[in-house]
Amino acid sequence: MSTPTIDRAVDERTYASYARPLLWRLVATREFAVFALLAIVYVYARGSIVGFDGPLTIYFLFLESAPIMLLALPMTLIIITGEIDLSVASTMALTGAMLGIAYTKWDLPFLAAVGVAIVVGLLCGLVNGFLVAYLKLPSLAVTVGTLALFRGLAEGFLGTESISGFPERWTDLLKDRIGGDSSYPLFVIPLAVLAIAFGVLLHFTTFGRGVYEIGLNDEAARFTGVDIARTKLILFMLAGGVAALAGIYQSLYTVARGDSAVNLELQVIAAVLLGGVSIFGGRGSLPGVLAGVLLIAVINSAMRLDGVRGEVTEIVIGCLLVASVIAPTLLTWISGLVPGRVPRPAAPPSVGTTPEPPASGGSSLKS
Amino acid sequence: MKIKKRRLSALAVLALTASVALTACGSDDGGDDGDDGGSGGGGGGGSSSITMIPKSLGNPYFEASTAGSQRAAEEFGGQVDEVGPTGDAGPDSQVPFIQTATQQGVGALVVSANDPTALCDSIEQAQDVDIKVVTFDSDTECRDLFVSQADAQGIATKQIELIADQIGGAGDIAILSAAANATNQNEWIGLMEEDLEANYPDINLVDTVYGDDDDQKSFDETAALLRANPDLKGIVSPTTVGIAAAARYLSTSEFKGKVALTGLGAPSQMKTFIDDGTVTAFALWNPDDLGYLAAFAADALVKGDISGEEGDTFTAGDLGDYTVGADGVVVLGDPYVFDSSNIDEFDF
Amino acid sequence: MVLELADVRKSFGAVQALRSGSLRVEAGSIHALIGENGAGKSTLVKIVAGVHRRDGGTFRFRGDDVDFGSTADSKGSGIAVIYQEPTLFPDLSVTENVFMGRMPLGAGRRVDRAAMHTEVEGLFQRLGVHIDPRRPARGLSIADQQIIEIAKAISLDAALLVMDEPTAALSGVEVDRLFAVARSLRDEGRALVFISHRFDEVFDLCDTVTVMRDGAYIGTHQIAETTVPALVAEMVGREVADLFPKTEAAIGDVVLSVEGLTSAGVFRDVSFDVRAGEIVALAGLVGAGRSEIARAVFGIDRYDRGTVRLDGANVRPGRPTVAIRAGMAFVPEDRRQQGLVVDSSVAHNVAGVIRTRLSRLGLISTAAENKAVRPWASRLEVKTNALDMPATTMSGGNQQKVVIAKWLATEPRLLIIDEPTRGIDVGTKSEVHRLLSELAGQGLAVLMISSELPEVLGMADRVLVVCEGRITAELDRSEATPETVMAAATGTTPDRIHLEHDTEMVQEVTA
Amino acid sequence: MSTLEKTPSAGPGSAPRRGPDLAKVTGDLLRSRELAVLVVLLLLVVVATVKSDGFLSGDSWRDLLLTPSILLLLAAGQMLVIITRNVDLSVGSTLGITAYAAGDLMSSGSSPWVAALGAVALGALLGAVNGVIIAFGRVPALVITLGTMLAFRGILLHWAGSDRVNAGEMDPGFLDLGTAQVLTIPVLTIISLVVVVAVGYYLRTSRGGRELYAIGSDPDAAALFGLPIRRRVLGAFIASGALAGLAGVFWATRYGGVSSNAGEGIELQAVAAAVIGGVAIFGGSGSVWGAAIGAFLLVTIDRVLPILGVPDFYQQAVVGALIIGAIVLDRVLASRAERRLAVEREVAP
C-alpha cells in the first residue's frame, strides 16, 4: 500500500537548534549550581580540614556512599515520572538477607546466591510496579506499605542472626583498589558502568524521553504512544534489581542483618532532590543527582573528620534540602520586593499545582 | 529569559547557604566533646590520641565510660575524642567512624562493637596503618586487646545468683536483652543458661525478648512478657536501658513486688526503683573505671609497653596493675552489687 | 446599566488575548455574547469573575469602578459565573458546595447545617429540580452541576449571572429547563450574559447580542433586528464562501472501516468507512460522544464490542502504539493537555512520535531529532526562533501547527483530527483548512471532528452526525445543510429547527 | 505525585434523587471504611482473649487502651494535614524534641503543667515552621518535612547530646499520670479521645474544617472559590505540630524517661494509621474516627501477634500487608462505585 507522498520540497525555513549559546545553557541550570557547590565544599574541605586531603578520604568516601549512589540511579527516573519509591532500603535489607540465607543455609554456590538475591529484588520491584502502574494506586501510599512489608520479611527471615561468612575472594574484591594502589575502590567500576547506563537510558533513549513526558504531562504522553504502565513497571523493577545489588554490596562489606540500611531511603531521596530533580516530576538530570550524592558524601566525610558530631551534619543536610527547594521561590519573592519591578499578575495561589495562563477560548466539554 | 536568570541566582543562594553552614561548623569546636579534631600523627612515644566509639551516642552508660577514659587521658597526657553513630545501633553505622579515625591516623581506637564480625574489615584497615585497636564492653574477633568489664562467666553467675535468691530458688524467669545480635549479651545469656541447668534445676528460663536498647521497645516487651507468662517469677535484664525500662513498667503495674527484677543497671537510673522497692539488688561494674582501664590499655599498646600477648602487664593509673589474660583479654574485676545500702554513694 | 466594560485589554506573555473588549448589559435582560473560539470571550469572562486582572480599559459594575483582585471580590459584589465545566468539590455534599467559603454560622460558631439544607431545598424547588442536598457532588451529571451553580448564584443574590456555553452538554429537555430558569431570573430583574455557539438558542432566549472577533468588540444588536448571516458575517469578518477552499480530490479505496463499535454508556454500534482522499466529518453537539469514538478507534480508550480495520488489517484495541504502527495519526481536541507536552521543546514535541524510527537500538540524539524535525516545522510554517524553545512560549495557532507537524511526520494513512481550528487565530485557521484539503488531495484519508457548523459544511465530503452515542445520519456533501445536520444532531425533525435565517448562508457555502 | 483522575465524566441525562431516608444512611455507614477497620480491630481483640484469657484483665486491659494514646494524637494530626493533600514526616522528630523539652523543664523545677504547655507550644512553633515554608513557598510538603525531620532530629541530638531525662528528674505526680486510670480507663487515653473528638467536631462543624476538606478535594476549585488556602494549610501544620507536642508530653509520662532517639520512625506509623483508617492519601476525604481506629488497630496488632504465635520479628511485615490491603480495597470499592454511578446514569431517562 503506498503512503501518500506529502511533498516536502518547500523552501527550508532556517531554524536554529538552540536559543542560547552552549556556555550559557550549561551554566544557567540547577545541575551546574550543585556541581559548583560540590566543588566549593570540596576545595574548602581540602584547604581547612586536617586529614581531608589524605589518600584514604576518597577511598572511604566511595566505600561508604556506594549504596546511596546505586539506589539514587533508578530513584532519579522514578521521581522524574512524578512517582516515588520509599521501599528501596527495605528491599536492600531483604535481598541482603536472602543472599546470606541462600549462601549459608541453602548452601548454594556464591554466584547462585547472588542470582537469588537479584531475583528477589526484581520481585519486590514487580510488586511495587504492578500496584502503582496497573492498579493506579498512589506510589507514596504503596511504598510506605512495602517499606514495612519488606523490612518485616528481612527481620523475620534473619531474626537474631547476622550472616557474614561470605567467601574471602568476594569480600576482598570489594576492598581492592583499581590498579592496586589508586585511591578508588574496585567497586567504582561497576558503579560507573551502571551510572553511564542509566544516564544513557534517561537522556539518550526514546524510553528516557517517555519518562520525561510522563512526568510533565502523562495524558499527552499517552497520546503519542508512550506506554505509561509498562514504563513505570520497568522503572520499579529496575529499582528492585539495583536495590538487590546494593543489598549484596552491603552484606559483603559488613554483614547481612535484618536491621541494616534503616532510613537509607530518606538519604537517597534527599540526594536526588538536592541534585536538582523536581518532586513534581518532569525536571532533573542524572549528572545533577550524582553531584547531589557526592555533595552529601563529602559533607558527611569532611564534618566527621573535623570532629563535628553526627547530628550537626544531619542539621546541615536537612537545611540544605529545604534551601535547595525553596531557593527559586524565595528569589522571585525577593526580586518582587525590589522597587520598580512590575509585580507578576496575581495568579491564583493554588497549593502544589503550578498555575498556567489559560489558552484563549475555553476547551469545550467532551463527555 | 526570566526563568534562566532565576536559576543563576538560585546557584548563588545555594553556594552561600552551604559555605556559611560549613564555615560556621568548621570553626566552631565541634560541639561539647572536647577540643578540636584529632591531633594526628600518633605512633610510638609522645602523647597518643585515642578515638572512642561507643555503640551509640545518647546512652548514659557510655557517657560514663567516655568520662573515665578522658580522666585517664589527662593522667597519661593523651587525648580522647568520642565519636559514634546517632540513633539506631545498626551493624554498619560504626564503620564510617572507624574509617575516619584511620584517615586521621590516630594512635588507638577504643570500640564497643555492635556486631562481632561486621567491623573486622575496617578494623583490619586501621591496623594496617598501625593503629592499635582495643575493644571494651562488647568484643569482636579482630582486635589487639579486649578490656572486659568482668569475665563473662563472672557476670553470668552473679546475675543468676541475684535472681535465684530474689525468687527463692524456684519458678519461671525470663531475659530482656538488648539488640538481637549484641555479642556480649548473647555470650552472657548462653553462660546463664548453662549455669541454670547445672546448679538451679527448678528455675526454668521461659523466654528471651529483645528491647534493642530502646526505651519504648524494652517497655512494651516487658509488658508483653508479663502478659504472655502470667506466673513469671523474675526477669533478668543484662543491659542498663532494659533494666530501667522494665523497672519503670513494673513500678506502675500490679506485678510490682510479685515479680523480681535484676540485671546490670546504672545506679543513677535505678535509684528511684530501689527506693520504691521494685528492685532489691542489681549488679554492674563502674563504667567509669572500665573507660579508664580501656584508655590505659590503649595507651600502653601505643607506647609499646605491651603487645597484647598473654602475660604482658601494665599499670592502669590508680586502678593498679593488670595482666593480659588468655587470648588478649584484660578483666576489670568482679561485678559490683548495688542495693539500698550503697546506692546513694554512686552518681554515674 | 448593570455591567459596563469599555475597550478592556489583556495579554499573557506573547499572546494578546484581548485587544479591546466591550460589553454593556441592562438589568432584567439576557445578553448574548458570541464570537468564534479565540475571539477573547472567555478572557473577558475571567476578568469579570476576578480570575485575571485587566491590563487596561474601564470596568464598571452597578455604576461604580471595580477592579477585582480575586474571585472572592467578584463574588462578594454580586457576580456569579457558571463555567462550562462547573468547578465543584467532589468529596463534599451538594449543600456545602453551594455555601463553600461563606457558610452561615449557627449557635456556638457551628456551621448551621439545618439552615443551609432548607435553603438549598427551597432553591431546588424553585428551579424545579430534585437533587438530594446531602449527597456528595461526585457523580452528578453536568446538568445537575450547573443547577447547583445557578442555585449558588441565587443564594448569593447575584445581580449579574454569566453563563459560559452552558448548553454544550445538555439534552433537549435539560436545555428547556435551563431556559425556563434563566427567564425567571431575568423577570426578577437580574442581568444575564449567555455565551453560546448555537444561534437557535441565542435567538430563542436572548434580548440583545454582542459580537467579538480576534479579541476585539465588533458590535451590539437587538436580537429582533438582526439575522444569523449578519451575525456570522460580523463574527467571521469576511464572506463565508472563501473560508473553506475545499478542492475536489479523487476518492480512493477504503482506508479505515469501523463496524459495530460499542462502549457501554458512551456510544453504541457505530459503523462507518473513510476512503483515501476523502474528508469525513463527525458532526453533532458537544458531548454526543464523537471524541470518545475517535479515542476508541485510536486505542486511547477500550471498547466492549466491534472491530476497527485499517487497510483491511485488524487493529488491536486499547494500544495507541499499535494504531500508530498501522498508520493512524490523531490530533487530539485539547492541545495544551493532550496534544503537546508544553514544557518540553518544539523539537522534542514534533519528534514525539517518529523518534522510535529515528533511533538506532533505542538510542537517539538531539541532533538527529533536530535534523528530522526541521523540514516538518518549515512545512507547517511554525514560527519559533529556536528548536529548543519550550512550547509554552507559542500562540495557540502555532502550537496546533506543532501538533499537526508531529503527526504528519509519521506519514500516516489516516489522520484523525479533533476540533482542528478551535481557539486559533483566523489567519492560521484558513492555513489549517488549506493544508487539510491539500493532504486529502494527495490521497490521505481524514476523519475530522468539529463543532463549528460552517467548518463541517465547508470541508467534509461526507458528514456523519452523532447524537447521544449513535450515528443518526450519514449525509453526502450535497445533502448536508444546517437544518439536516442540526436535526440529526438533536434527534428531532428538521422543521422544529427554525433556522430559516440560515438559508442564505447555506446557499453561499454549498454553491 | 501522579495526577489521579478524581471526577468521573458524567454522561448526559440526570436522575431525580429520593430524599434522604434511614436505609440510605445506614447503607452508607455499612459501606464506610471506619466500620470495616473497627470490625477487624474487634476481631483481633476477640481472638486474642480466646487465645490468652488474661488479655482483657488488669494491666493488659490498661495497656490495650494506653499504648495507642500516643499514636492516636499523631494520626489525628497527620489526618488534618493529609486531607489538604499534604503530608508531615517531621512529627517523629517534633515528638522527640517536645518530650525532651518537657522533661528538661521539669528537671529544672518548673511544674508539670508549665512543662506540658511549653511542649505543646514548642510543637506548634515547629509545625508553623513547616506550615510557613509550605503554604507561602508553594513547595511540596513531602520534601520540606523530610528536610525538617532531619534538621529537628539533629537539633535534639545536639541539644540533648548523650544526656537523657530519667524518671528521677521528673515530677512524681506527672509520672503517675502516665498510668493513672479512671474507672479502669487510662487518663492519657481519655485525653487523646477528647482531642480526637475535638478535631472531629472542628472538621465536622466549623467553616475552617470544611474548607480543609475542600482544599484537598480540588485545590484549583478552592482557589476559584477564593478560600484562604494559605491560612488553612498553615493552621493544619500548626495543629499537627501541637498534637505532636502533646504526644511528646504523653511519651515522657508514659515511658518515664526521654532519650535522644525518642519518636524515631513513628511518623510512618502515623501515615499508615491514617491510610488504613480510610483517609485518602490524595486529600479531600476521610474522617478522624477512621484515623483513630487505624491507630488503635496498628498498635493492637503489635500486641496481638506474639499471642497468635507470629514471631514478633514479622510484625512490620503484617503492618505492611495491612496498609497495602487497605489501599487496594479502597481502589476496588471506589472504581465499583464509579461504575455503578455510570450505569445508574445510563439507565436514567
What characteristics describe this protein?
heterotetramer; C: alpha/beta; Rossmann fold; 3 domains; 20 strands; globular; disordered C terminus; D: 349 residues; mainly alpha; two-stranded antiparallel sheet
Give the structure's gist in a few sentences:
By secondary structure, chain C is α/β, with parallel strands linked by helices. Chain C contains 19 helices and 20 strands. Chain C has helices at 41-48, 71-76, 94-99, 113-126, 142-155, 172-187, 199-205, 228-236, 290-298, 320-326, 335-339, 346-350, 355-358, 366-379, 396-408, 426-441, 453-459, 482-490, 503-510, and strands at 3-12, 15-25, 30-34, 56-61, 64-65, 79-82, 160-164, 191-195, 208-213, 216-222, 254-263, 267-275, 279-283, 305-310, 313-314, 328-331, 414-418, 445-449, 462-467, 470-476.
Largest sheet of chain A: none
The number of domains of chain A: 1
Mean pLDDT of chain A: 81
Low-confidence stretches of chain B: 1-13, 18-46
How many separate helices of chain B? 10
Count of discrete domains of chain B: 3
Question: Which helices and strands, and how do they pair?
Answer:
The complex is a heterotetramer of chains A (367), B (348), C (511) and D (349).
Chain A: H1 22-27, H2 30-48, H3 56-80, H4 88-105, H5 110-134, H6 139-158, H7 168-175, H8 188-203, H9 206-223, H10 228-253, H11 264-274, H12 286-305, H13 310-337
Chain B: H1 2-27, E1 49-53, H2 60-76, E2 79-82, H3 95-104, E3 108-111, H4 120-128, E4 132-136, E5 145-148, H5 152-166, E6 171-177, H6 183-199, E7 203-210, H7 215-228, E8 232-237, H8 240-251, E9 260-263, H9 267-275, E10 281-284, H10 287-303, E11 313-315, E12 321-323, E13 329-331, E14 336-339
Parallel strand pairs in B: 1-2, 1-3, 3-4, 4-5, 5-13, 6-7, 6-8, 8-9
Antiparallel strand pairs in B: 10-14, 11-12
Helix pairs in contact in B: 2-10, 3-4, 5-6, 7-8
Chain C: E1 3-12, E2 15-25, E3 30-34, H1 41-48, E4 56-61, E5 64-65, H2 71-76, E6 79-82, H3 94-99, H4 113-126, H5 142-155, E7 160-164, H6 172-187, E8 191-195, H7 199-205, E9 208-213, E10 216-222, H8 228-236, E11 254-263, E12 267-275, E13 279-283, H9 290-298, E14 305-310, E15 313-314, H10 320-326, E16 328-331, H11 335-339, H12 346-350, H13 355-358, H14 366-379, H15 396-408, E17 414-418, H16 426-441, E18 445-449, H17 453-459, E19 462-467, E20 470-476, H18 482-490, H19 503-510
Helix pairs in contact in C: 4-5, 14-15
